[in-house]
Design goal:
The complex is a heterodimer.
Chain A: E1 2-11, H1 27-47, E2 50-55, E3 63-64, E4 73-74, E5 84-93, H2 96-107, E6 122-125
Antiparallel strand pairs in A: 1-5, 1-6, 2-5, 3-4
Chain B: H1 8-21, H2 26-43, H3 52-70, H4 75-83, H5 92-103, H6 110-121, H7 126-132, H8 137-150, H9 162-175, H10 183-197, H11 201-214, H12 217-220, H13 240-254, H14 261-274, H15 283-297, H16 300-314, H17 316-324, H18 333-343, H19 347-360, H20 364-382
Classes of the chains: A alpha+beta, B mainly alpha.
Chain lengths: ~140, ~375
């Protein structure tokens, strides 16, 4: 088994095919979208492939060290041009092919007009797997 | 008191296997055994049984019958139980052996087979297995119950495939150490038990391989967790008792003249373990064993390792020539090429290739190791010669 991170972006990734901002959806469309995501997570839990998942607030800041005795620097609450992560899910699957299959399934969540968003999801393997013994 | 402290873990697989042989389906038997274990932990501290295994069998069997009777839908299974001949004095090993085969059944995915083996044969708790594989307990519980459902209809009437069982145990071994359970040690324990139950040279080969690798574990990482390559390992930290045991088991297996991939791999590990210093490694013989391994498995990773061994036995250029015949997209191909280029004195090329290999690495320890290799060569080039 290998773990993968599925990243959803508010922005920074390529635009979705069905790219309508969520606030322009109907309440029913929003509910259908959320239900799809919850059902997806529940199915993965049932199949023994779910590790964790959560959503992040759209507001974020960049922070860095600014020298001894000084407070860290932030670049304000509106990092306009930057990549923003909307949420993630961590899965533990038998193969890369399975990870791609699941990412495709998650990307098919319904959006405006009840049609799949075709949103781009970022798929990243974890590096913390123990090394196989080969000497 | 824990399961391990009470000595219950050792008894679990035998008790489970007896219930299954008496006709209980696997999932129901497993539930009944778990109930009996909980009962044992409650009762035993004040009232220890004279025959712990007999006690567990009686309580688990009674528990299974209670549940089966209470459940009308299970009437059919009850009939089956009634028809089953009374339990004879079957040996411990027979029953446990069948459990190994059931838990490694080909209808299971490797991940499910691993989880079920650790639970049913190893007697680990779901939480321990979940911790070891870094997944939530609920996820691991689902994985195990799906696996139990998958093998629910399988009857233990004929021996399964030893090779499948060995692959599962090897997967467990390679997971190493993460939670409070050391999976490498657990894999050795389970393989050792399998070796007492079944007379098969490849079981012995796998046990020898595990022991020979495990004996070198303390030397394989530095205190900060970074990898120490074989040539730089402090050989005083190798566990010589474990090495002798591995070598002895391997020699007995090899004398049977039924070579398999695990025996061949163990032979290579034994040649490494046998060398007093890295320079005294018998690379010529190692190449010969890799030839056997390639012939047995056709495994591309074995071909890659063979090319590195050729580099040691016949020089870096011979190694690079052997490597050139292989698919360059193989995992660790670039890392092997980097190593052989450095050995050939081509430091710039080696540094570049180490950096590329680091980006391709699939685990953290390996990536950090390869990045350090690149940094080491780059630092050497940029430093004035007299410093």
């Amino acid at each position: 088994m290998a773990k993968y991170l599925l990243l959803k972006h508010y922005r920074g990734g390529p635009a979705a095919v069905n790219d309508v901002p969520m606030e322009k959806w109907t309440p029913e469309e929003i509910s259908a979208h959320i239900k799809y995501m919850n059902d997806f997570a529940a199915r993965l839990e049932e199949s023994g492939e779910f590790v964790s998942g959560d959503a992040l607030a759209p507001e974020g800041a960049w922070v860095r060290y600014d020298g001894e005795g000084r407070p860290p620097v932030t670049d304000g609450p509106f990092p306009e041009t930057k990549d923003l992560i909307a949420g993630w899910m961590i899965i533990d699957v038998d193969s890369y092919e399975r990870a791609v299959e699941l990412a495709g399934e998650l990307s098919a969540a319904p959006g405006a007009g009840g049609k799949p968003i075709h949103e781009w999801l970022e798929l990243r393997p974890f590096l913390h797997m123990p090394p196989t013994v080969t000497e | 008191m824990t399961l391990a402290q009470a000595g219950l873990r050792e008894l679990t697989p035998a008790v489970l296997a007896i219930l299954v042989r008496r006709g209980a389906d696997f999932a129901a038997a497993e539930d009944a055994v778990q109930d009996a274990l909980v009962e044992a932990l409650r009762v035993w501290p004040d009232d220890p049984p004279r025959d712990p295994k007999g006690w567990l069998i009686t309580v688990a069997w009674r528990r299974f019958l209670d549940v089966a009777r209470a459940d009308a839908a299970r009437r059919r299974r009850e009939d089956l139980v009634d028809q089953e001949p009374p339990a004879g004095p079957a040996t411990f090993t027979d029953d446990t052996l069948q459990l190994y085969f059931l838990c490694a059944h080909p209808s299971l995915t490797p991940a499910s087979a691993v989880a079920l083996t650790l639970r049913a044969v190893g007697g680990l708790t779901t939480r321990q297995i979940a911790d070891a594989y870094l997944v939530p307990e609920a996820t691991m519980a689902q994985r195990i119950s799906r696996a139990k459902r998958t093998v629910a209809g399988v009857r233990l009437d004929r021996p399964g495939d030893v090779a499948t069982v060995l692959r599962v145990l090897y997967l467990v071994f390679n997971e190493g150490y993460t939670g409070d359970v050391d999976l490498a040690t657990e894999a050795i324990r389970l393989t050792r038990r399998l070796a007492t139950a079944i007379d098969h040279p490849e079981v012995a080969g796998l046990l020898a391989l595990m022991l020979l690798h495990h004996a070198r574990r303390a030397a394989r990482t530095a205190p900060d967790g970074s990898l120490v390559p074989l040539a730089e390992q402090d050989r005083d930290r190798w566990d010589t008792t474990m090495i002798s045991e591995g070598v002895a088991i391997l020699q007995t297996a090899l004398s049977r003249d039924r070579l398999g991939e695990f025996q061949a791999q163990a032979a290579i590990a034994a040649l490494h373990a046998d060398a007093p210093t890295a320079d005294e490694t018998d690379w010529v013989q190692i190449v010969e064993w890799y030839d056997e391994l390639v012939q047995l498995t056709g495994n591309p990773v074995a071909r890659l390792n063979r090319a590195v061994a050729v580099g040691e036995a016949d020089g870096a250029h011979a190694g690079l020539a052997a490597l050139a015949e292989l698919d360059a997209t193989l995992p660790r191909h670039t890392a092997a090429a980097a190593y052989l280029h450095e050995k050939a004195g081509d430091h710039n090329q080696a540094a570049q290739m180490y950096a590329v290999a680091a980006r391709q690495a699939t685990n953290l320890a390996e990536r950090d190791h390869l990045t350090r290799q690149a940094a080491r060569l780059n630092a050497r080039d940029s430093r004035p010669p007299d410093s």
